[in-house]
Amino acid sequence: MQNNFLVTTFLFFISLSQFSCVPDSRPKRITIASSGKIESLDPARASTLKSIQLLSSLGDTLYELNSKGELIPELASGMPIFSKDKLKITINLRRNVLFHDGTLFNSNALKFSFDRFKRIGTMNYILGNKIQSIETPSEYKVVINLTKPSSSINGLLTAVYLTPISPTFYKDYSDKFLNDQFVGTGKYILKRFSNEVQIIDPNLNHWGNKPNNEGVNFIGYSNSSSLFGALKSKQIDVLLSNSIDDSQRNNLNSLSKKNEIKEGNSPATEISFISLRTNSYPLNNLNVRLAIAKSLNRKLISDKVSYGLREPLRSIVPPILKKNKQELWPEYNPVEAKNLLQKEGFCNGNILELPLTFRSNVPADRLIALSWQEEIKNILNECISIQLNGVESTTIYKNLNLGLYTAVILDWTGAYSDPEAYLTPLLSCSELDGEKCKKGESVYSGSFWGSRIVDDLFLESEKLNGDERLAKLIEIEKIASESIPYIPIWISSQKAWSQNKVSKPIFNGAGIISISDLKFINE
């Protein structure tokens, strides 16, 4: 309640500053709202879509993916150059680029940023053991030495987590996080930061095209209803869809079709799934996992929860990243589910108790859980009983690797546009005991599942390119789909809605809105 009062007060004063008796032809400030808070603006720690969106406005990456998924040089002056053995990548850097504190961007600054992320980044697994070292043979040239040929390195070079930061400003933070400040090279400069409100102004010294607006105010609302109401009452200019209630998402979709507001859509890259703890009873039994997977009616859940706006999915890789769009994971079949459970001694008086945890601050999660629970009561009540447990998302993320959740609803968007960016964080394991993962990414996803064959195939895929590599990655997913450490639910695109007086939000190939392109129109 207090948070909403502060946000409303802030918006009131912003609205006063937008109007004046003196005519002003300059572009005005854009107010963008979404739900939740931003805990950190440090590229080494930031992990939420909201923080990544803000960082992409404050910083630049070496390359960017356009809306067609093509690699476009940003801080690089040209395309990466690979050695014949594919173990060295030479990148020439753009000259005359300044960080927000006036420090010159050069090869040493890039090396500082990469090395820091590799040391302390919470997402540093995306580098894995790929990068051995970075050399700086000249002021505007870097050579990235790879431990082995890597066909996914192009995707890494677009990752917002690797946004260069000023070595001068961060000199005392080379081994620790700086959460409430940011100094990069981007089109905007951070003027104010709190968990609920972030204000950014145009960077007048930016090397590229200047923003179409005078700056942006990012506002965080505590709940979906107040966020929805703010757009309807025109308190805000743009609304980001993350965590908004699906009924309201459907309402906004209808308004956009009536041309009352504008709607922008990203490529469909966010997958939602249920992570199953495979290392302990009852889900250490493959037949039990298969039965549970076959009890999930994706089409029903999509229709009831998302009004059909989210596509049912039987894959942990977005279809746009696979040529054949093959769905490998078990289909809905309650009859087979019951037969499997009976085979394992359930039903007929012995009911499988399944605790299902969902993120209490993500509206869709609760509705997914309730819909599945209701469906189970209707078709398999003599075999399965689902007990629901709502937990705040940050608490879930902190506890996933502790094995506290038998089954938990999660979502994931890859750090870059490649199947590997989905398979590695869900399936890779560095220490195995049979099919139990003791250490690795699948521990942090809550499944604790692993496979030596899968780990070997990951290594083999790094030596391949094109269709051969894609086939190897699909083989990895096929093996996982037969062991069922996860149950895919659906796939979503990011959405954003703007008032008609504001230009339509446009997403790039990585699912990030181009904030600098937003402008007021017809004025």
TrEMBL record:
Domain of life: Bacteria
Location relative to the cell: Cell envelope
Domain Solute-binding protein family: 70-431
Organism: Prochlorococcus marinus (strain MIT 9515)
Predominant cellular place of this UniProt entry's protein: other
Keywords, alphabetical: Signal, Transport
Protein name: ABC transporter, substrate binding protein, possibly oligopeptides
UniProt keyword Protein biosynthesis, yes or no: no
A GO MF term: peptide transmembrane transporter activity
Protein family according to the UniProt entry: Belongs to the bacterial solute-binding protein 5 family.
InterPro entries recorded: Peptide/Ni-bd (IPR030678), SBP_5 (IPR039424), SBP_5_dom (IPR000914)
Gene Ontology cellular component terms for the protein in this record: ATP-binding cassette (ABC) transporter complex; cell envelope; periplasmic space
PANTHER family found in the cross-reference section: PERIPLASMIC BINDING COMPONENT OF ABC TRANSPORTER (PTHR30290), PERIPLASMIC OLIGOPEPTIDE-BINDING PROTEIN-RELATED (PTHR30290:SF10)
An example Gene Ontology biological process: peptide transport
